[in-house]
Amino acid sequence: MIEQLIRFSLRNRFVVLLIAGGLFGWGIYSVKTSKIDAIPDLSENQVIVFTEWMGRSPQLIEDQITYPLVTNLQGLPQVKYVRGTSMFGMSFVYVIFNDDTDVYWARERVLERLNYASRLLPGGVSPTLGPDGTGVGHILWYTLDAPGMDLGEQRAIQDWYVAFGLQNVPGVAEIASFGGFQKQYQVTVDPNKLTYYGLSVPQVITAIRTNNNEAGGRKFELSGIGYIIKTTGYLGSVEQIQNIPIKTLNTVPIRVADVATVQMTGATRLGIFDLNGAGEAVGGIVVMRYGENADEVIGNVKKKMEEVARGLPQGVKFNIVYDRSGLIQESVSSIQHTLMEEMIVVSLVVILFLLHWRSAISIIVQIPITIATSFILLNAFDISSNIMSLTGIALAIGVIVDNGIIMAENAYKNLAVRQAELTAESRKVGAYEKTNENKPESTPHPQTQP
After folding, report:
1. DSSP code string of 334-367
2. CA-based nearest residue to 82, from 92, 93, 67, 98
């Protein structure tokens, strides 16, 4: 088989050159379209179900939320196992699928099962799916450089402006905000005053909820002018909450301010984000969607940051804390330098030991063609160009070079042996002919007559 292939290649050199040129061109296209990342994605194929029930203990979360969800999600097709974690006010359920399962098909199956499982949960609790990102999807971290601005204002800018702007970048699954304070109205009820007025905490909550609402009316036309009638009932200040009546006692309204203290403050925090020991900071994490090109997504996010920065308050700018694109560029440049160094070393070795420049050229040409062809296979199997895959290619260059040197040296040796044999045979033939030329011609003896 191999002899036939070699014989075909020698007899059809132009066809072989066309095939090699086609593979090289296809490989160059594959290099340009290959997904580039710094580290390989070895995370499991999982779907995260997140449920929030604030103020409840981990044991209550485990009994009322985590256990019902885990038991109902175990029967899904192509599921390997289901993990559950309960903590204060939150529940996380990790549904691990087989490696060959499409992640978006898996998310659809989980959503279908959650429609049934939600009926087993307490009222007002709604489980949601986590972002369609992987464990290595944190490709960029940034903070807001806003000197002199309150942490609550920075978090408001991050949540209501920056996050919405960066969320529209193709390939971004989520912008996870961190740091600062999330502003909220806090109503601190005095139990002694509740007992004095004969009220309960649910009555206070119901009064605030019913007064924080808007209702639409109708369109009223007068003298050719249309007027829209509606009620404006959303609460917008601490004073409005304080003046909400809870009930009337002897024609005197009992307000929220009579039984509780209302203030604008930040939500309860479980930690802080400190930047280089210089104090707290507010920012976000860009989470890449499953199967995207990390280098391309990072570039698009940086371009979008330039657009979003135009709408930030004066003096506020982005500060990139972690950027994976630097590691990606180092990985790509490393394979380029390795390729050039090995091509130079191979050329010198072949020329010095074989003293044959045509053999050196044939070996050097094999290296870029083989590397370009390897990217065709990487794209075919949906493998990104990362540190592991590029290192494997760099190591494989040595095998390619060794193969080329051995084949060239073997061919050179066999040709030399064959040429020596032909030379020896020609010398023997020349010596034989020369010997025959020096001998006298012999005359036949006359036949004797009987």
Report:
1. HHHHHHHHHHHHHHHHHHHHH--HHHHHHHHHHH
2. 93
- Supply the pTM of this predicted model: 0.76
Residue type, 441: E
User: How does pLDDT run across 66-97, given as a tens digit for each residue?
Assistant: 999 999 998 889 999 999 999 988 999 999 99
Which two structure tokens, joined as six digits, stand for 45? 């194929």
Tokens of 43: 């995370």
Residues near 167 by Cβ (< 8 Å), separated by ≥ 6? Answer: 174, 175
Q: How far is CA 309 from CA 55, 174, 318, in A?
A: 37, 19, 7
Residue 265 token pair: 């403050």
Q: 57-66: b or e for each residue (b if 16 or more CB lie within 10 Å)?
A: eeeebbebbb
Q: At 281, which amino acid appears?
A: A
CA distance 248 to 242: 15
CA-based Rg of the chain, rounded to a whole angstrom?
39
Helix axes 357-380, 387-438, angle to 10 degrees: 150
Cβ partners under 8 Å of residue 170, min gap 6? 297, 300
Laid out side by side, the sheet with 317-323 consists of: 172-178, 283-289, 133-145, 317-323
How far, rounded to the nearest angstrom, does the alpha carbon of residue 198 sit from its chain's CA centroid? 57
Burial of 142 (0-12, 13-18, 19+ CB in 10 A): buried
Q: Give Cα separations from 189 to 209, 262, 263 (angstroms).
A: 15, 9, 12
Q: Find the mean pLDDT for residues 132-156.
A: 89
Residues 37, 329: Cα–Cα separation, whole Å: 9
CA dist 436 and 310 (Å) reads 102
Contacts of 201 (CB under 8 A, 6+ apart): 189, 194
Sign, CA torsion 318/322/328/331 = positive
For 376-404, give one letter per residue: b (16+ CB within 10 A) or e: eebbeeebbbbbebbeebbeebeebbeeb
Q: Which domains are assigned to the chain?
A: 34-130 (3.30.70.1430), 184-266 (3.30.2090.10), 324-422 (1.20.1640.10)
Signed CA dihedral, 40, 43, 48, 53: sign only: negative
- Residue 450: pLDDT band with limits 50, 70, 90: very low
Residue pair 358/417 in contact (Cβ under 8 Å)? The answer is no
Among candidate residues 247, 258, 262, 263, the one with its CA nearest the CA of residue 192: 258
Cβ atoms within 10 Å, residue 77 = 10
Classified as helix, coil or strand, 264 is: strand
E strands along 146-289, which residues?
172-178, 183-189, 215-222, 225-231, 245-249, 252-255, 260-266, 283-289
